[in-house]
Amino acid sequence: MTVDLLPPRIESAEIQWRDGVPESSRFGDVYFSRDNGLAESRYVFLAHNGLPDRFNSVPAGGCFVIAESGFGTGLNFLAAWQAWRERRPEHAATLHFVSVERFPLSREDLSRALELWPELSPLASQLVDHYPPLTRGVHRILFDGGRVRLTLYFGDVLEALETLNFRADAWFLDGFAPSMNPEMWLDKAMAEIRTHSKPGTTLATFTSVGRIRRALASAGFEMQKTRGYGRKRDMLTGNLPLAPGTEHQAAQGSVAVVGSGIAGCLLAHNLAERGIAVTLIDSSSTSGSGASGNRQGATYVKLGVDFNDQSELALSALLFSQRRYADYRDQYWHPTGLLQLAWNEQEHDRQQRFLGRNDYPVEILYPVSQERASQLTGVPTQTGGLWFPHSGWLEPSNLCRTLAEHPGINRAFDFKVTRLAPVEGQWCLSSVAGDNIVADRVVICAGHESPELLPIKGSFRFKSIRGQVTHLEEETVRAPRAVICGPRYLNPAHAGIAVTGASFDLRDMNPSPTATSNQENLSELNTMLPGVLAGPSATGTSTQGRVGFRCTTHDYQPVADELQDAEGKTVRGLYLCTGLGSKGLTYAPLLAEYLADRLSGQPECLPARLSRRLASRRIHRNAQK
Questions:
Q1: How far apart are CA 149 and CA 355, in angstroms?
Q2: pLDDT tens per residue, range 107-122
Q3: What number of H helices and E strands is found in the chain?
């Protein structure tokens, strides 16, 4: 029996342990064989899908996609990952593992279950460490530097199959027995499995129920019954016929990324990891020189009172950014925790309504009192707020430079693009100096300058917003231990400087810092945290700052999509990634992952209802409905 929960939380599995083996109380069945669960996984799912022998034939820049109908303890995933490590090709290739789980295990139960397999412990410990909070929807997790990508959907299997965009090379039809969990084995789900399969796709399942065999055969699979594992007499295997010329091919062609801010650098690095030829272009002499050139930047989102698609996209971005930046912890990423201060009566009321309508796991956020807020941040606060324990701040300019140095990235700096034009099925980018770069596809990640590069006519709904941050010398401010956000943010001090800001200047295009903007930042900061400033910084006359220009859209949602014109016609091979606004450091990793999925033809990390929010059609002021 399911329990009604407030969003975005999902109900966890009810586990009982018998002789050290986990059983589902809800379904009355074990998660794996009592004899040897790992051997069962290898026999049923790996061997009967021809794995790992098929791994070595994945072409350069390609991927192998395994889809699974019940994640459970993650044992099948770990077995596949281990086999991929042993037999993967030497060139760049990616293993995608797409799995659905309606009742996910808690982190504690997951860890306990996987302790049964010491040989998997190096992989299991990584899975436990990166296991997402129990919230509905899609969670993309990267392992082995991106060579293994886990797309974990917490929710109903039919819902997942209807909204996820992928095509499998092999299926692990797992889950509890059809007699105990009939909803997962509906004929409609079997038809969706066919939709998400390529010619030549194989499948294996522990069950041998005739209804399941007939449903899969009706969907087009050639099915057969074979010997099961251990005490199970029979199991089913199947495959889709492979027509001549339909063998898997890697996505071919080069990509040019225009703009080396955080979005562009993350995207170029992502593509290079997958073996895609990529050129990173910027008008400056180095990466991270625009809005991403700040010394510090807070990574946070403001989640809506009502949990809708916009809130789910923001949450997905927040969680993915924390996992993506973890590779740079204590180098450029500082997860100090972050306090969203209930800094006035209106924000206090909003936070109370938010808490009343939502149930977020404490790994994501929880409310704190004024006293606890002061303890966590190390500075006196006037109110409490929402504490995000795994958020923090980033050194974006330093991270951009490191990302851009990937050996698979061709860098073309001091290259100001003046013209972007289609030429014989490719795109030609011309510079001020008259140089040309030709690429099969182009992604414009140029922030507020993006509209100027669009090779189509129209009126676009972008806004350029000036943002000035103020640099505070450590002795002039009581710097916090964690990020504090309100009408301004204040970061912990680093290298003797604490950064606060940023101003929000919609009609000011002055690229130079001004004393007026510094004073505005300091005034707002002093209102938010009275007494935090001391000495000459309180006047704003002796402080330094930096200006960047944010790019936002009319609805304050990003754009990450292949370009469409005002009539809805797609401009083939030309993509946009812009409009990230003041939350760019948080949104950029997820949008880079999503666009890299699309550009490489690999499983997408966003469900259809969220990817629609990123559509480029929205940018046209007079688009036809």
A1: 33
A2: 999 999 999 999 999 9
A3: 16, 31
